[in-house]
Amino acid sequence: MKTPECDKVAAAHEKSQLIGEFIDEFLPSKGIVLAKRHEHSDGCYADDDPDHEEEICGLESGDLLPSHCSVTSLLAEFFKIDLDKVEAEKRKILEDLRSKK
């Protein structure tokens, strides 16, 4: 059975493990967090302010906010791994194993 996405995971394992530890453990130990810049969206304005004249979010455009994206998804994107395809391949492997019993 061919499992190209799972093969990518295996090939990237050592590097992704090291990068993940750096992001998850080392950076926070130094007081560093991943952040992204705030960009105003519809949720930043009152419902009765259709012209978006006054922000209610209390933030300025460009303010830094902690990023809540998962390290797993960042690493998958970096290594060009499609996590949905990985999951599908894993399910197929399990199906094949179960059918051989």
Topology of this structure?
Layout: H1 4-29, E1 35-37, E2 64-66, H2 71-78, H3 83-99
Antiparallel strand pairs: 1-2
Helix pairs in contact: 1-2, 1-3
Folded structure, characterized:
The protein has 101 residues and is mainly alpha-helical. It has two domains: 1-34 and 69-101, no CATH class; 35-65, no CATH class. Helix content is 50%, strand content 6%. It has a two-stranded antiparallel sheet. The longest helix is centred in the N-terminal third of the chain and has 26 residues, at 4-29. The mean pLDDT is 93.
Mean pLDDT: 93
* Major sheet summary line: 2 strands, antiparallel
Number of strands: 2
Write down the Rg: 21 Å
In total, the number of domains comes to: 2
Number of helices: 3
Described by the principal axes of the CA atoms, the overall outline is: elongated
Strand portion:
5-15%
How are strands sequenced across the largest beta sheet? 1-2
* Share of helical residues: 40-55%
- Ranges with pLDDT <50 over ≥5 residues? none
Question: What is the H/E string?
Answer: HEEHH
Query: Structural class, please?
Result: mainly alpha
Provide the descriptors you would attach to this structure in a database record.
101 residues; mainly alpha; 2 domains; two-stranded antiparallel ribbon
Structure in a nutshell:
With 101 residues, this protein is mainly α. It is 50% helix and 6% strand. The protein contains three helices and two strands; from the N terminus they run αββαα.
